[in-house]
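Anyone opening a protein record will find just a pair of labelled lines. The record below illustrates this layout.
***
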Amino acid sequence: MYFDRDANPQDIEGERVAVIGYGIQGKAFAVNLRDSGVAVLVGNRDDEYRKAAIEDGFDTRTIADAVADASIILLLVPDEAHQEVYHSQISPHLDDGDLLVFAHGFSVRFARIALPPNVDVALLAPKMFGKPIRQRYLDGSGVLAFLDVIADPSGRTLRRSLAIAQAVGFTRYGVLPVSHAVETELDLFQEQFLTPMLIDAIRISFEVLTESGYDPIPVLLDMHASGEMAEMLIEAASTGLFEVIEQQGSPTCRFGVQRYLGTLLGEEVRDKGRRILADIRDGGFVEALSAEAAAGYPSLAEYQREYRASGITKAHDRYRSMLDERGAATGVADAGEKGAKNAA
């Protein structure tokens, strides 16, 4: 892994960085870079994010103008916008020796954009969303990131990428060399297998208990909304998945876990994981995603209707209203709102 000792801010001294997209990650990248003394431009289309960048005091321009006036370009717009934005507003304004950095390898892995031969290209993919990237920087720490040198015509791609990683705060935690193809496939697998399986596990637990007559609110809290399970997973990130149960669980908890561990998810689930991974690697998912995007994402609207009508969502709405009532009764509305957001 690369750490602060492996990065040198002089490797980007005098260079200007264009942050393209001032959304979830773009804002965190931009403010951290600025706080580290890096010259930053923001390139964004004319929308609420552009207004936010201006309000935050950034030199904010069209995407094309920002790219033209920078030597390092961080592409932080959503994956589905990469093709249009890159080919129409970025590629024509890249100069020899510029460094183009992706925060996710999707567009390169699936050849959705044509990389120029005269430009350095790197992946710098944080394994966290925007808010913790900013907060941990302010706290003096950082988040894990993956790094890949995709193209290196200048011979300086690694050094410059590490300097950017240091300025954003990633080398405080650690930056791991991982190829852009592997990063993409792991990320998509987590989104399509692990995440829905975890959500389904909580949903099924909720339904089994409420169908058996238990009150939805304490069920909701005990299954996930109290935050206890989330805290266990956070602790497990440093302690270990099995070790956290051993260290933090009572004998009753440990006995209950080991009694059924390895029996609830059978080979059929493993086979589904293999099929999902194969679909990602052979391009089936990208084909399905492209068709969905072209149709305006109709399945997402249907999914939203279904989950909003579900028992677990209705229970969570009731729980939020209880916290709102607490805030109104005590005159501390912010505390109630914070509690509801934490529970969500």
Observations:
- Residues 95 and 323 are 55 Å apart (CA to CA).
- Residues 332-344 have pLDDT under 50 and may be disordered.
- The beta strands are 16-20, 39-43, 59-61, 72-75, 99-102, 120-126, 145-151, 175-177.
